[in-house]
Write a structure and sequence with these properties.
The protein has about 525 residues and is mainly alpha-helical. The radius of gyration is 37 Å and the shape is elongated.
């Protein structure tokens, strides 16, 4: 092949740019190098010249070093554009960067140079994306799960527009992967971008691609686990939710096998156990995490979850209310109402009932402290009505209330333990009218619920159970208490399903319950409706 016209052949600057500044190389230069035999021969001669020999090269003199530095500083200037004959000065002195690249490329030829240029291109895309990620990435995702960046963040300022920064990082990482599809770092970072964009299915796919090449990569395992966790909690299908949480747990446990000291994996495993309802295991995992990291923001979140787990048990809430009442600790009561708002209504009812039974003003005070915090947190101010009801009881009515409550509790203790449900149903019948006359609709909700359950579970008399649950809902509506209305709707939906096999009617009741529960932070009822 005949060499093309002189003005289209490579100059020494072209060779220098080709190796050291890949982003500036045009497609025309690529095509020319493939088409021009003279330029390829020149490159081949250069490679032969630089082929390592058995005799070590001589050390460059001070003058040669000065010459090299001068040439580097003048790279790209007009003075270096004219070709200098090879016999006048060796290539490695004129272009040290070319010499270094060529020594490494000896025996591999032009394909290696192209590969090297692509590597530099992808590295440049990745470096820019990494800077953007440092400025906009949030390690705490939608449901509180944790995933730190796979590199140390050094950016001092947050991006003014994190959403736009994430989109730009996404574009750059796709560019890097377009040049080098096997670039693991870029694929991991792309998964992190998708997680921050709440694109959990896409994130899972990117981490899975890494695991196809590196089956035990802890960062990819952790990323896939986080993706599954977030997607599971966002699912409306209970079976899918449970399956994804189980898979996420398996990934977190796999990371801990490779790296037992991983705080991220231990933190995320604790959250996954908590969301899976494995509360005792979650507490043990939280304790293990806090032993290594007791004071961080992540630790504070786990401490809240541990408190929530322990307070999820009704007796634990009652003990905490009684302790705070005795100590006059208003702060502890306010924290309790904030931490477990769905347990607070029952705590208020029990504290007021016990205040009547024991004559303790401290328990009444505790209920009065819990109520405004509960109302502020949930938007349900109905329990102020219950406080007024108790405040308005005259001494004779208090005695009447105390006698009725004691009679009901005695019947429950006598019959419920041995499942004598028919006897319990008969024994509670005479209590309905006195409670109604007293205006204690809060106690009537519990009483109708108890009677309905005796019929539903004891004799499978779904028709009579449904009637009791309807009376329960009527009483709940009179109280205005969101938690009591939600509980009544759930019971009525179950009876509707069993008696009439009416799925549409049951789903309509559950939909009402879920809307109410979501509006007032009644988490267990939200989960039940889902």
């Amino acid at each position: 092949m005949t060499k093309q016209s002189k003005d289209r052949c490579f100059t020494e600057e072209d060779f220098y740019t080709y190796v050291t500044k890949p982003g500036l190389v045009s497609a025309d230069l690529d095509r020319h190098l493939l088409a021009c035999s003279a330029c390829r021969e020149e490159l081949a001669g250069l490679l032969r010249l630089l082929q390592p020999s058995e005799t070590p090269p001589e050390e460059p003199t001070a003058a040669e070093i000065e010459s090299i530095l001068a040439l580097i500083s003048k790279a790209g200037s007009e003075e270096t554009r004219s070709r200098i004959a090879r016999e006048r000065r060796s290539w490695w002195l004129r272009a040290p960067a070319i010499a270094a690249g060529a020594v490494l490329a000896a025996g591999l030829g032009l394909s290696w140079l192209i590969l090297l240029r692509d590597r530099w291109k992808s590295d440049a895309f990745y470096a820019e994306a990494q800077t953007l990620l440092e400025q906009c990435y949030s390690p705490s995702l939608d449901h509180g799960v944790r995933l730190d960046l796979p590199f140390a963040a050094t950016a001092r300022l947050r991006a003014a527009e994190p959403k736009e920064a994430l989109e730009r990082a996404n574009e750059l990482l796709l560019e890097a992967l377009g040049v080098r599809p096997d670039m693991v770092e870029a694929r991991l970072a792309l998964g992190y971008v998708y997680l921050n964009q709440s694109k959990f299915e896409r994130a899972q796919l990117e981490f899975q691609k890494v695991l196809q090449k590196r089956s035990s990569d802890p960062r990819a395992l952790l990323g896939r686990g986080v993706s599954l966790f977030e997607a599971g909690l966002g699912s409306r299908d209970p079976a899918e939710r449970n399956n994804r949480l189980a898979s996420a747990l398996a990934d977190f446990e796999a990371v801990l096998k490779y790296d037992p000291g991983s705080r991220e994996a231990r933190y995320d495993r604790a959250l996954a156990l908590f969301e899976s309802g494995r509360l005792d295991e979650a507490l043990r995992e939280i304790d293990a995490y806090l032993a290594r990291d007791p004071d961080s923001l992540w630790a504070e979140r786990l401490k809240e979850i541990a408190s929530k787990i322990r307070l999820n048990r009704a007796e634990a809430v009652d003990r905490e209310v009684e302790r705070a009442a005795e100590a006059g600790d208003a702060g502890a009561l306010a924290k309790l109402a904030t931490l477990v708002p769905y347990q607070t209504p029952r705590a208020i009812r029990n504290a007021l009932k016990k205040s009547v039974q024991t004559g303790s003003p401290r328990l009444a005070w505790a209920a009065a402290v819990l109520e405004p915090t509960y109302a502020s947190v949930t938007g349900d101010g109905s329990y102020a009505r219950l406080l007024r009801f108790y405040d308005g009881l005259s001494p004779p009515l208090r005695s009447r209330k105390r006698a009725l409550d004691s009679r009901l509790q005695a019947l429950i203790d006598l019959h419920l333990r041995d499942l004598k449900l028919e006897a319990l149903l008969t024994g509670t019948e005479p209590l309905l009218v006195p409670f109604r006359a007293l205006g204690d609709h809060w106690q009537l909700v519990d009483l109708h619920h108890l009677r309905g359950n005796c019929l539903f579970y004891g004799s499978s008399d779904y028709g009579r159970a449904q009637a009791e649950y309807r009376r329960m809902l009527e009483a709940a509506n009179r109280t205005g208490a969101a938690d009591l209305v939600a509980r009544s709707l759930a019971a009525l939906a179950a009876a509707e399903m069993e008696r009439n096999r009416s799925f549409d009617s049951a789903l309509s009741l559950l939909s009402r319950m879920k809307q109410l529960a979501e509006a007032h932070r009644l988490d267990p009822w939200v989960a039940f409706a889902s």
